[in-house]
Amino acid sequence: MTDLRTADVPGPRADDHVRGPEDAPMVLFYGDFACPKCATAYAKLRRAPVRLTFRHFALKAKHPRAVALALAAEAAANQGRFWDLAEALYADQSRLEDPHLWALCERLGLDLDRFEADRRGEAAAERVRRDVHDALRAGATATPTVWIGPADPGLLDTMVTFGIREARQIGPPTDGRTRKGSTYE
Q1: Each residue's pLDDT expressed in tens, for the chain with a length of 185 residues
Q2: Which end of the chain lies in a sparser environment, N or C, as judged by fewer CB atoms within 10 Å?
Q3: The domain that contains 140 carries what CATH number?
Q4: Rg of the Cα trace of the chain?
Q5: In this structure, are residues 95 and 65 in contact, taking their beta carbons and an 8 Å threshold?
Q6: Whole domain around residue 152: which residue ranges?
Q7: How far apart are CA 20 and CA 116, in angstroms?
Q8: In a domain, 184, yes or no
């Protein structure tokens, strides 16, 4: 496979959505809340001994609700509820339309007026655009895209153990191909 990158994978940012122990290896998850494969990968990553960083790879051409859900997640993040909304969206992929989203936000205790303003605001749109742009420049071609840092060479095998065969190691390929999977492939 030809290397499609025009830029390196951006490192950790102050505004990233991160969960997991600070001393655990970092896994960078570019996902889409309307993607069934992302929901499966997310469920597996939650059980893995990693520090999970989520960034948006919302492609409307692939999943029509992807961008709307990414904007909703950013609006929930403004109220400290990003992970709660992410969990709920991935847990029930059959209820992603606005009436279900509103009911979910109400159950999470979000201020709905603020949520709606933030969801339609420029800050959320810019955040989602930035994440998608960075993912594309770094060579992501599908959802989910999972990158791991080069500091933990055994992490690729850990990802395979947890069923995440799409993991790629951050760093320039030495043979013109993307590092994907593990030594077991």
Answers
A1: 455 556 677 778 899 999 999 988 888 999 999 999 999 999 988 888 889 999 999 998 888 999 999 999 999 999 999 999 999 999 998 888 888 999 999 999 999 999 999 999 999 999 999 999 999 988 888 888 888 876 666 666 666 666 666 666 665 433 334 444 433 22
A2: C
A3: 3.40.30.10
A4: 16
A5: no
A6: 24-43+65-169
A7: 29
A8: no
